[in-house]
Structures are given as C-alpha cells and as structure tokens.
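Hi there. Long-time user, first ticket. I'm pasting a complex I've been working with (about 532 residues overall). I'd like to know whether the download I got is complete or cut off, because the file seemed smaller than I expected. Thanks.
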Amino acid sequence: MILINCPYCGEREQSEFTNGGEAHVIRPKDPDILNDKDWGQYVFYRSNPKGIFYERWVHTHGCRKWFNVVRDTSTDTILKIYKLTDNKPDISEFQSTLKSPSGEPIVGSGNFAVKK
Amino acid sequence: MRKKYSIFSLIKNAFSNNENWQKMWESPEPKKGYDVIIVGGGGHGLGTAYYLAKEHGFKNIAVIEKGWLGGGNTGRNTTIIRSNYLWNESAHLYDHSVKLWENLSEELNFNMMFSQRGVMNLAHNEHDIKEMKRRISANRLNGLDTQWIDTKQIKELVPIMNTENLRYPVLGAAFQPRGGVARHDAVAWGYALRSNEMGVDIIQNCEVKDIKTDNHKVEGVNTSKGFIKANKVAVVASGHTSVLAQTAGVRLPLQSRPLQALVSEPIKPVINTVVMSNAVHAYVSQSDKGELVIGAGTDGYNSFTQRGGYDVIEETVRAIVELYPIFGKMKMLRQWGGIVDICPDASPIISKCEVKGLYFNCGWGTGGFKATPGSANVFAHTVANDEPHKINAAFNLERFSNGRLIDEHGAAAVAH
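Hi, the file is complete. Here it is re-exported in full:
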C-alpha cells in the first residue's frame, strides 16, 4: 500500500483515495470538426507509461477534493503532488529509474524474474 | 527427436532418480533475422509460435522473453478456464479455446492437468440473478453448457459454503460444467517443447528494448542481445504491450494494473469446483496439491510493480472467510501480483495495426489464461495471413473508433 499526501488533509493510506486516471487530458476544443478516430482517441486512449505518469486522485473518504500526482509507475514512488490550479510540472524535473522502456527498476519492482 | 512422455518414461526415469530427463528445449543465441519474432514467452506467445509452425508452415520463428518462460502472467494467474461470456464474439473466441484445451494434453503429449471440474458464478441479489439468467440464455444460444443452479444444488456441490448467514446471501449460481482449471506451467512448457521441435528458437533472458520501424513497416527489434531483423513482429507482452507499442509509435487503449492472487497452506480436498463471485469479489479453487488458490481484484491505479496493495487482498480474504467460515483459521503461504493490460471494454485486442508487419495480442486484462490456446491459434492465423481469423475479426483496434465495443465487464468476473 502506498501513502498519499493529500494537499488538503495530509498523509493518508491509498485506500482512502480513488484514482482518476491520466491527468491533463483536455476535451477537444472544437468537437464538430473531429472524426471518429479523433473521438476514439479522446474517449478510449490514455497514456500508460512505465515510469513517470501524471494522474488525478480524489480523497474519496476524506475531503473529497481532486488533486494531481506525478508517480513513477515502475516503483510506485510519488514524485510530486500538486493542486488542480497549479501548472503541470515539466517532465525534466523528474528522473526515470529505467534503462529501457520496459526494463525493471533496481528497487521497487516485485518482478524477480528479470531484476539484475 | 520427438520427446514422448508416458507412464513408462515416468517409471524409467524414476529408477534413475529423475536425473536423466532430456532437456525440453534448446536455448540458442539469436540469429540475425527471422520471418516472425514473437515478443513474450508466455502461453499466448509460445502457443502462437506453435500454431505458426504447425498450421501455417513458418520455419523461421523466434520467441523472445525478458525473463523465463511462463514467468509473467502465465505463472501468476489462478488458472481458471471457462467460456460463459455474454456476447457472441466473446463466446465464440473463449469456447474455441475451451475446445482446444480439451484435446491439448493429447495434441502436445504433455499433461496439462486440465480438470473440467466446473465453474460457478454466484448470484447474491435480485439483480445478479437477472443478469446471470440473461447471460445463461445468451450462452445457451451460442451452444455453451451454462446452467442455472439453486442454493440447494450449490450446497450439494460445495457443502462448506455458507449460503444464508452472511451479508450478501447466496441465491443461486450460473454453472458451467465444462469449465475448470489447468496447470499454468504445463501450457507454456508444452507449447515451448513442441514448437522447439519444429525449429522455433526460444530465447530467454533477452529483453526487447524497442521495435524498429521504417516508413510504417516493421524492421525488427532492438534487444539486450542486439538488433534482430524480422519481417513480422507479434507482440504478446501482456502488461508491457502498450509500452512496447509506444516504441513503434503505436498507441493502444490499454491501462496496466497489478492483479493479485494468493495461495494457502495445503489441506485435504474440501472444494472440488471453482467458485467465483463478482459481487463480493472472491474466487477460489483448490489445486491438486491441496492449496486454496484465491484471486483478488485489480489495484485501483496504474502500476508495473508486480506487487499490489494489501487492502485489495484484505477485501478478498474478508469475503472468502464469510463465504467459507471453515477457512477462517487458515494460513496463507504466498501472495504475488501480475501486471494486466486492461481494455476499456474488458475484451482483448487481437489485431494488426497501422504499422505493416506489426501485430498485437493484448488487452486480456484479468482473464487471459483461459484463452491461451484459442488466442494463440487465431493470432497465428492473423500473423500468417495478415488478416484476422473470423473468430477474432471483431477484436480489432478499429472498434475504439467505430464504437463496435464488446463490453464484457459483466462476465470478466474480476472487479476493475
């Protein structure tokens, strides 16, 4: 279980929160000009990186407020927590621990089959 | 030489202390190039190699695996096999698989320990009953053997179940007698053994780092053992499929999440069927060793850590103990997580894509094991002919733009 530091309530267990998927997905500005493929991208396609991921969380069993989190999905380390009104932090602020896109981190993975 | 396994070979090798068994497959260094490279040495990938060699006459195939064979989700699932899915497309696909399972031990001459002990899906409220009866009717129209059983029949099949004295009483169940369990390692090993005999190179401990493309055509893969050229690349890497697709510039509608399972200490036989419950989220079967095999739900967030959170298994164990009070004092021996790739409609993608020569078999989410032979069989057809088999034609990538989704969240059994 991971601990999440809610910007409004402080550090709580992850089970108090609900994940809201990828952050910074913007609804198309001019829906009328979109074709089916573009709509499909907006409705069904989300980034799924191994490594640095921008995501939304809501403190369901607490203040019920939404906020954004930057997390390394290969280790579950939380790198940054910021409010919805804050600017998106640049990806260069964070360091990925992976040597290849589908590699395993040295610490934080349960995949002992391929950890070196 | 074809390695035959029989009762006689077992006895013979028992006399030499089981030290003289032949190696099951070779571990060669990769060649410079292949006709087909399959990324991912789990059941689906090895099966694809097997059917490509056997049914489509491909001679020059490699299976490339990051860790060891069957060490990913093939070795991390709860081995449940069934085909009681709602929609026609899914029923055909999953039952194609069950039919292949039924003859797989004989076909591969390798014991799959396939046991058709039946799979039961419990109903806990009025809505469950209605939804399940609808699914049973749909199944029967597709020629599946699903049937409705009442609480009395459930008690006869599983006497240890507490059906009344619990928060969500058991009101009945959908039962598929042809469903069951199989041995997870055996399917990977069996396919590896027989495809290796037909000349497939099985390359373990070799990570595919990226897929190289040129002008929308696949060129090969960069691996930890260098670049390997390929005319066709078939990616069957479960949770990591979308990560690899990204390296070829292809976006897939997948989200990767940990899915956990756990096993108990071994006990004498107490439960001889598979019992699943979507509503309270608990499913359990007993392995031939006597361990209870328990499956939990997916964690609520994307992760590649192959561990998962304790709150998820706590919830599952709570439901298990309420359904089966006699398990209350049992000790759990092991817990693990696998990374599953979940599609928006909980159905798989077995499809080509906009890059020529690049194929994906992914999105199996929480229920890929049951489909291993069927998925491999139709995927081999897709890779060989550059056209889908009629069984997997509907499981294409275009459905996420034309809207022809195959929504199987109700039949997927695992909460996500």
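A couple of notes from our side: Strands of chain A lie at 3-6, 10-13, 18-22, 52-58, 66-72, 77-82. The domain at 3-97 of chain A is CATH 3.30.2270.10 (Folate-binding fold).
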